[in-house]
């Protein structure tokens, strides 16, 4: 921006005051003009890091952006944290590095971190959980008392790590209490618990106190299904074959009264319900461990409104997942280790009935460790907190295997 300078020659006291006022205004204008490009530079540097895609192509521009941010010091800290919101995974790593360098420089010079601004950011649950955690860990390294100030209010926080800390504090407090006081604390802890190990500890403590705990419901596991099969997967050829149920998944949805040509003759849909705490559908134990076969499973999940959630699946078998007729993900891999939340698939569920369908494939390996034929599936939010479907209307229980 071009700044034109005008020179005035004051005459008398009134003119002198006017001249001083104008000079002050000019100095302020110069300061603001000088700071504007710096602010733009910080914003531009954050945008450069946000959009990094990998492959080493943008390394030089990324390095220049980091130099700009670190050189900007404290005033770049909040823009960096806010930049996590729309950053690629690689971009988030570069933003983290920039933030940590700034924080290290401030601490090394003996200056205080901008605690008030960072705590306000941490409390802003609309921001990235990763960025909020970074700000929290940075402050806690200098002020451990922040834990007692902030964590107790984070039992239902959108950040899973914050919830974990809040649950841990309650569990520790409950372990030192007795009777109804302990039960109340464990019950409170359970409302925020989203990690399997913590839920197990809390559930065990409550059950020892004579309390009923429905772990499956807590996590949002789908316990009622309709299954059909087996279909041929010998020599692992069936994974790519769209058998009749699969064709229905991708069109009007499964016809649960239909009869199909299966691997060993005619097959129909049959209900299967599990009472396992972790929603395990054990095909090998409850139906039959058909080697070299494929099974189809279907359920209906009723949503009270359109919502963005996650479907989390655990299985050692090859699988495909459809939601409302759309193939969401597939993985052709057999007999890998299986665990809860092994696969996380973001989904948008519509208001009303949503069909969730699976294809689970077993191969012909005979080793003892290759005999598992099972899956577990749950619906949850981004923190891992279970989300339950709306009750199924009377008379509609057959299509989903019953109310979850």
Q: β content, as a range?
A: 15-25%
With helices defined by DSSP (H or I, 4 residues minimum), what is the helix count?
Answer: 14
- The number of distinct β-strands equals 12
Order of helices and strands, N to C? HHHHHHHHHHHEHEEEEHEEEEEEEH
CATH class of the largest domain: Mainly Beta
Strand order of the largest sheet: 4-1-6-11-8-9
- Average pLDDT taken over every residue: 88
Structural class: alpha+beta
Number of domains: 3
User: Helix share of residues?
Assistant: 40-55%
What CATH calls the topology of the largest domain is: Jelly Rolls
Which segments are poorly predicted (pLDDT under 50) over 5 or more consecutive residues? 1-37, 400-404
Sheet with the most strands, sense and barrel status: 6 strands, antiparallel
| End-to-end Cα distance | 65 Å
Q: From the 3D coordinates, which CATH architecture of the largest domain would you assign?
A: Sandwich
User: What does the overall shape look like?
Assistant: globular
What radius of gyration results from the CA coordinates? Answer: 29 Å
Structure description:
- The chain has 404 residues and is an alpha+beta fold.
- The chain has three domains: 13-144, no CATH class; 160-213, no CATH class; 219-400, Jelly Rolls (Sandwich).
- Helix content is 42%, strand content 20%.
- It has 14 helices and twelve strands.
- A six-stranded antiparallel beta sheet has the order 4-1-6-11-8-9.
- A hairpin with a 2-residue loop joins strand 8 and strand 9.
- The longest helix is centred in the first third of the chain and has 38 residues, at 13-50.
- Residues 1-37 and 400-404 have low confidence and may be disordered.
């Amino acid at each position: 921006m071009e700044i034109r300078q005008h020179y005035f020659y004051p005459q008398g006291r009134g003119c002198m005051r006017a001249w001083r006022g104008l000079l002050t205004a000019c100095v302020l204008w110069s300061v603001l003009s000088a700071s504007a490009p710096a602010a733009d530079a910080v914003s531009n540097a954050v945008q450069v890091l946000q959009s990094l895609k990998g492959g080493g192509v943008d390394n030089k521009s990324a390095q220049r952006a980091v130099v700009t941010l670190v050189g900007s010091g404290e005033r770049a800290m909040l823009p960096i944290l806010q930049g996590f919101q729309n950053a690629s995974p690689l971009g988030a790593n570069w933003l983290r590095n920039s933030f940590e360098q700034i924080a290290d420089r401030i601490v090394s010079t003996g200056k205080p971190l901008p605690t008030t601004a960072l705590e306000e950011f941490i409390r802003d649950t609309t921001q990235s959980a990763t960025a909020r955690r970074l700000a929290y860990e940075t402050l806690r390294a200098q002020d451990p008392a922040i834990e007692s100030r902030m964590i107790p209010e984070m039992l239902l926080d959108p950040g899973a790590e914050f919830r974990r800390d809040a649950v841990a504090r309650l569990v520790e407090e409950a372990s030192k209490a007795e009777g109804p006081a302990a039960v109340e604390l464990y019950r409170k802890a359970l409302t925020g618990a989203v990690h399997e190990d913590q839920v197990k500890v809390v559930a065990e403590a409550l059950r020892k106190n004579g309390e009923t705990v429905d772990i499956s419901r807590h996590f949002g596991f789908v316990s009622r299904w309709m299954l059909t099969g087996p279909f041929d997967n010998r020599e692992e050829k069936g994974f790519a074959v769209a058998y009749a149920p699969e064709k229905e998944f991708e069109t009007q949805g499964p016809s649960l009264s239909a009869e199909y040509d299966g691997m060993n003759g005619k097959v129909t849909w049959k209900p299967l319900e599990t009472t396992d705490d972790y929603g395990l559908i054990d095909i090998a134990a409850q139906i039959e461990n058909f080697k070299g076969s494929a099974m189809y499973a279907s359920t209906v999940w009723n949503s009270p409104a359109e919502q963005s959630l996650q479907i989390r699946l655990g299985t050692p078998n090859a699988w495909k997942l459809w939601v409302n007729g759309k193939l969401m993900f597939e993985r052709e891999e057999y007999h890998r280790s299986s665990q809860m939340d092994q696969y996380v698939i973001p989904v948008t569920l519509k208001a009303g009935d949503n069909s969730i369908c699976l294809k689970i494939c077993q191969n012909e390996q005979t080793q003892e460790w290759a005999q598992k034929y099972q899956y577990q599936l749950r619906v949850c939010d981004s923190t891992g907190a279970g989300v339950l479907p709306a009750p199924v209307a009377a008379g509609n229980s057959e299509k989903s295997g019953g109310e979850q």
